[in-house]
Design a protein that fits this description.
- The chain has 303 residues and is an alpha+beta fold.
- It folds into 2 domains: 68 residues, Roll (Structural Genomics Hypothetical 15.5 Kd Protein In mrcA-pckA Intergenic Region, Chain A); 216 residues, Pseudouridine synthase (2-Layer Sandwich), CATH 3.30.2350.10.
- Helix 1 crosses helix 2.
């Protein structure tokens, strides 16, 4: 990703945004317009997609450009079968691996909220997120009141989340609770590490199966919701996730290619945001994770 940081002067007063970006950024007007259409332009810190928007002295414009100048193709629409639940307040979907949970700096197209909204025919609000490569249960609010209630639930750790992970080795010990604060890794941008000065983070886990080659199927139940929490905690226990080279996990096991980070949000339990009735949702294990588990001699749980 390439970024441009631009600031308008008096000479730019009243200029169209697309022309300003092209002239001051040294790019073609077509590229400027594609960045605008994709959602990669921020005017005074807010996403702006209006090419004809006038700009005035002192305003700051940030432009995030996809490598090669064109955004990657948008993910396919969500299949109806991926809608696990919907009522007037709550929507739950089975997120496919590879779909971003929220808009990126370069685009607001193809993110999970947009796909869920298209499936329902109405806007939704994301209340918790999974990493791009992680699949599984994701909840959305459909009203402002539900969004506030769900946000408070996730902030205070009320929901029970259950994940399945394929790991290069079984964690040591094979079952337990890891209570290890997490903070940013100053040497690796966008990554986390165990840090006594970091935010509190705790994960319960148990090894469900170990294959003949030593790879393991692990169930993880995070008690907190820190970025990359399960990935970092299991790696800290010597059980890096398969397909997760950022945290020590291999992309191949012998002749087998690992297509992504092997993590799946299997189950989510929470009180309904309107009324508090207990709810539970499960997403089926995706074919890529199930197929690799079978090839490694790991039996998936019955439910």
């Amino acid at each position: 990703m390439r970024s441009l940081e631009l600031r308008a002067t008096r000479a730019d007063d009243g200029e169209r945004l697309d022309r300003f970006i092209a002239a001051r950024g040294g790019i073609s007007r077509g590229l400027a317009r594609r960045a605008l259409e994709a959602g990669g332009v921020f005017l005074e810190g807010k996403r702006c997609k209006v090419a004809s928007r006038q700009i005035w002295a002192g305003q700051a414009v940030t432009v995030h450009l996809e490598e090669g100048g064109r955004a990657a193709g948008a993910p396919a629409p969500l299949a109806p079968a991926r809608l696990l639940f919907a009522d007037a307040d709550l929507c739950v979907v089975d997120k496919p691996a590879g779909v971003p949970a929220q808009p990126t700096l370069t685009t607001d197209r193809g993110a999970l909220p947009e796909l869920a909204a298209a499936l329902l025919g109405a806007p939704v609000t994301l209340v918790h997120r999974l990493d791009r490569e992680t699949s599984g249960v994701t909840a959305f609010a459909r009203t402002a009141e539900a969004a506030r209630a769900l946000a408070e639930q996730f902030r205070t750790g009320v929901p029970e989340k259950t994940y399945l992970a394929l790991c290069a080795r079984a964690p040591s010990p094979p079952e337990g609770r890891i209570d290890a604060p997490l903070g940013p890794d100053p040497l690796r941008k966008g990554m986390r590490k165990v840090d006594p000065r970091g935010e509190p983070a705790a994960t319960r886990y148990r090894t469900l199966a170990v294959g003949p080659g030593g790879e393991a199927l692990v169930e993880a139940r995070p008690e907190t919701g820190r970025t990359h929490q399960i990935r970092v905690h299991l790696a800290h226990l010597g059980a890096s996730l398969l397909g997760d080279p950022r945290y020590g996990g291999p992309r191949r096991v012998g002749e087998l290619r690992v297509p992504r980070v092997m993590l799946h949000a299997r189950r989510l339990e929470l009180p309904h945001p309107a009324g508090g009735a207990p709810m539970a949702f499960e997403a089926p294990v995706p074919d890529d994770l199930a197929g690799l588990a079978t090839a490694l001699g790991l039996a998936l749980p019955a439910r």
